[in-house]
Amino acid sequence: MYRNDGFRELERQECLRLLAKATVGRIVHTRQALPAVLPVNFGLDTDGSVLLRTSAASELVRAIDGTVVAFEVDDVDAVAHTGWSVVVTGPASVVTDPAERERLARTGPHSWVPWPDEVFVRIGPELVTGRELVGRPSACA
Amino acid sequence: MYRNDGFRELERQECLRLLAKATVGRIVHTRQALPAVLPVNFGLDTDGSVLLRTSAASELVRAIDGTVVAFEVDDVDAVAHTGWSVVVTGPASVVTDPAERERLARTGPHSWVPWPDEVFVRIGPELVTGRELVGRPSACA
What we know:
2 copies of one chain form a homodimer. In chain A, 18% of the residues lie in helices and 45% in strands. Chain A is an alpha+beta fold. In chain A, strands 1, 2, 3, 4, 5, 6, 7, 8 and 9 form a 9-stranded antiparallel β-sheet that branches. The longest helix of chain A has 10 residues, at 12-21. Chain A is globular and about 45 Å long. The interface between A and B is large, with 53 and 53 residues.
């Protein structure tokens, strides 16, 4: 969250409420020492963790497991100059606990196709920030 | 761009064509040693550079000037499981050349409000990658 840029900051609970309405966000991480970003579908766990369900062999999992990532969701109306963005920053890790995997297989996000080697990745909600672009059309940039 | 994740890779020209249709994207960078991401409105220069127009005093400008950033645009239909994403990775720098600033003031992106201390930031298109999510609904994650 940047201050002094003319946005209204959102409280954590407001951010989580907005996250819960979305199904697609963007994983921001580092790949080969460069900033990288990838859209993914996701689910939100009861504690505010972001959950991904994907292939264990995917390059994304190899890139982010054990690292700190940012996960961003937004909804910006470029005509009205309104909208919001929310960022969850925290450690990404593959879920290895069998009971937790079993729970997420029932309640977690759906993958857009079944992966034979699917895993769940959890992003801990250590930092949850958001900004709303309302009544101040400078919103972006 | 991740290979082997079931996406169709897009050619550079196709990526630039998609970028030219968009008005809002996301700046991916590092802030206080953490991954950071911020939606911004933008323009595309004739050479494929991404152009921002914002306040010289903004924290975003201070965070990215002189660094390598990623700039992402996407359009994903979470119901149809289709869409695309494009990422421009390259050096971000405040435009300091007076003639270039004058040109961009005429032809560059519009700011959503006038900043008294506005500057243009250029992101060089060193790496332009994209992926299309079509016919393979695993698209995300």
